[in-house]
Amino acid sequence: xxxxxxxxxxxxxxxxxxxxxxxxxxxxxxxxxxxxxxxxxxxxxxxxxxxxxxxxxxxxxxxxxxxxxxxxxxxxxxxxxxxxxxxxxxxxxxxxxxxxxxxxxxxxxxxxxxxxxxxxxxxxxxxxxxxxxxxxxxxxxxxxxxxxxxxxxxxxxxxxxxxxxxxxxxxxxxxxxxxxxxxxxxxxxxxxxxxxxxxxxxxxxxxxxxxxxxxxxxxxxxxxxxxxxxxxxxxxxxxxxxxxxxxxxxxxxxxxxxxxxxxxxxxxxxxxxxxxxxxxxxxxxxxxxxxxxxxxxxxxxxxxxxxxxxxxxxxxxxxxxxxxxxxxxxxxxxxxxx
Length: 338
Known about the structure:
alpha/beta; 9-stranded mixed β-sheet
């Protein structure tokens, strides 16, 4: 971790008037949950890539060895911090990593593929109107011409911006991997593919199902999938056009007696001339990744172990919630000492 919060403290001490307030309970000490509930669902469209209607397909016997590299990202927001105004300022720590699994089954970080970004997130124009012009630290502007000048809305905009920056960071290192593959095999990304990767050997796995691409009737087919079954492949359509991916749902673990989304993932690969020929094979690779389980993570039914390894690696190098909160408490103590 850099000395960003230390530099912020130095800036605050230069102010003739000091009133610093900090909210510390914005994220769980046990992890980094999303700021918005998974139940906040949206509906999108799709074009079928195979079959005349969505149906279930058996993918065959699990086969190991297709994936050799794995990518994940993390974000650790803290705050908001209020300095002499009701304008919320968020601290954001973001990281992304690509790890590779060797023939000895050990995971290692690829040189040059662990990147970190640390900044303060605030609406610059609104902050300036309140006399807040922070110097000596990296600041990301979260302002918008249509922004509602309400502290809660501004704080949510900052959280959204942190997620956007994380997506860009992940896309950047994935693109670097694609442009100069450092090893044989495919790269598996935790989440959707964020860019057009041509016909590169890259796949994405989405654990969240907040965006629904199937009709109500088609959803029933996907939710009824048995372990080792997948849905028909389709091309997601979002605002602005068709996404450059081929996607399908795959059941990793049995869901009887559990939530219908238990063990259900959505897979993406670049849309290309070979995409349909790869769908079953990639599904078999993913099924082979079910062991070892990603316990004790609560998302073990959808998370493969190498992705959990990436997550644990990044968290081991990130500033802890406790250390960040201690620094933030120092900021709030400045006013009391003046």
